[in-house]
């Protein structure tokens, strides 16, 4: 199958972000003093378990970032391949059955019949009101009432079994690698992992991995023949929407930071380092911006952007490009409203740093301002940047849902947790309630945000040991219980 | 003291001017009034006459910054900048797109907003401090650990979930209180209970955790060790010494949001159908009523700045060591 790659604006920025992270990781690996705090992150059980879950979200998000336009089959056999206007991602292609198996309206999870009665013409004339069979969900069953439970059980069991096999392979190979590194026998490494006394908490990672793989395996085995999380008003599969929402959530959480980071870093450091009128100006700038309540500033800016986009439709060639640009703008706006906090922190830290002896020494040797800032100050404030970045992430994911509800979030055609909740909210009053879309959006969001929070907690604890975070508590607690046992 | 307050208020003026300039740029320069008119009247098939009429009805039929058609001072005053932006300093807010007086709407909607926001604020403060103190009292035990786990879990749940879940459980399943609505006087209590509880719960995770950190920081100080060395029981140390001293950052941190309580909460009010300023703002955003949004932005920053000034004053009141200069 031929295709034409498409790089949307947000895709390009995601690639930049991945490149930045790779370069950063490479730098960290080479310097022991940079590596030490990351090692502490690696030793936190909650942090590593959270990272395992985050990895799954990130893989789905990255798959959804590689966009392309598949070729259309043209009958006249022309040499020029024609490409569809529809922009698809790799995830869309992998989940083709999910994307294309669209019912007519609501259906509950694992249902074989629609959720609403419809008037059906009987073959022999006459009409009857009944719940019609779904076109795709459980369509392979002859007698749904009798077969449904056993069919779901066998499929889920098979999927979970395969997942367990995969887990077994991963766990064995990781254990083998660890054993090789520690120069131990395989069985003794296995037993230390089993007792949970390895420095890197492999047991927590394996348990989390097993849970994810079991759930994922069962879901994968079932999702092509059932709507495992039901369908929405226009019959779209809710599971597919949840998967697509992950990219939107991740993008808003990361790109916003990427957007604001240069401003916050440069302005904050400049204000603290140069002081005087530069400081006054920058302080005035961020005091003014931060004195406008965040939601209102975002609402005002997004409204204005909406008007601009409505009055200039010629700027966007496809719907995807338009929705994508709107997402990017939302990130920029969120960045503009949230850089002030980081800027203030960085200014304070730089004020402290510039009085340090080594900076004074650099000054006395005639090192240029630019060099002092880039060599001595920025590396020493990076831990603040890092902590703020990971701490902000979860808040931004949650904010997206609220903003979409207010009506100033992502484009209505972009699938996100916010748009899912917004659409499902209207069905609250329905009797019996349509609960699955809300359930799906909230549980995916909870998993993402909780793991981000736990990871942020571990990072904060590793880089700023004064904070009394969860990981610190768990460690003293564990030490206590180990001491008691000994 | 008075000197300081006056200077603080004078400092606030350039910030308000800045806010005003930002809103002016956003609402009138990025998109001209013509664009707004086109948006309101529908993008397609809109005649220049219709645009001119809309602009005249809403008072946008003047030049942006400088009016050459007028004489003398009117060159500056008969402009959109002066009549729409500068007028806000005199609290002349003008009319919304549906013709209602914005200032009157704000006055009548302030009370319902306050009726929710104030109980949430007071109750929240008490509940969070109580929970944080409990966790600190049992620090480094199961209670503390699972308390923090609970806080992190509560933080990870979307505020929309609390509202939707609460409405479903309390109102729809158990029929304890009405789902939404509002009425005057004491009768409104039954409408307010649920939004207040949900408001308190939805901010519980982050705040309790933050207060716990503050208490723990206070626990590490020298006077606590002295108090313990005197032989005071742990409860006396905690409730008499630590609580009092940790209340300083907590209360001064809370002062900044007091003026903002008038604005209410956007989503809680709109979900529960409370006719407050929050739902007013949401309605304005949904109907793209820029006049109202502009006023709310200005009002929000004004109240925030008032909050900042109050914070500085409250610092000196609770902690005499801080001198204002």
From TrEMBL, chain A:
Q: Does the keyword Membrane apply?
A: yes
Q: What do the Gene Ontology cellular component annotations say?
A: plasma membrane
Enumerate the transmembrane spans: 6-26, 47-68, 158-179, 200-229, 249-274, 286-307, 327-346, 381-406, 433-456
The family database entries (SUPFAM superfamilies) matched by this protein are listed as: MetI-like
For whether the record's keyword set contains Lipid metabolism, the answer is: no
Q: Which residues form the ABC transmembrane type-1 domain?
A: 246-456
Alphabetical keyword list: Cell membrane, Membrane, Peptide transport, Protein transport, Transmembrane, Transmembrane helix, Transport
Question: Which Gene Ontology BP terms does the record give?
Answer: peptide transport; protein transport; transmembrane transport
Please state what the protein is called: Peptide/nickel transport system permease protein
Q: Which organism is it from?
A: Nitrosospira multiformis
UniProtKB/TrEMBL annotation, chain B:
- Chain ranges passing through the membrane: 9-30, 114-138, 145-171, 191-211, 246-272, 292-318
Gene3D superfamilies to which the protein is assigned, alphabetical: MetI-like
| Keywords, comma-separated and alphabetical | Cell membrane, Membrane, Transmembrane, Transmembrane helix, Transport
| Lineage: superkingdom | Bacteria
Q: Which GO terms describe its biological process?
A: transmembrane transport
What is this entry's stated membrane topology? Multi-pass membrane protein
**InterPro entries reported in the protein's UniProt record:** BPD_transp_1_N (IPR045621), MetI-like (IPR000515), MetI-like_sf (IPR035906)
ABC transmembrane type-1 domain location is 110-314
Which GO cellular component does the record give, naming just one? plasma membrane
Tell me the compartments it is located in.
Cell membrane
Query: Its family?
Result: Belongs to the binding-protein-dependent transport system permease family.
Protein name as catalogued: Peptide/nickel transport system permease protein
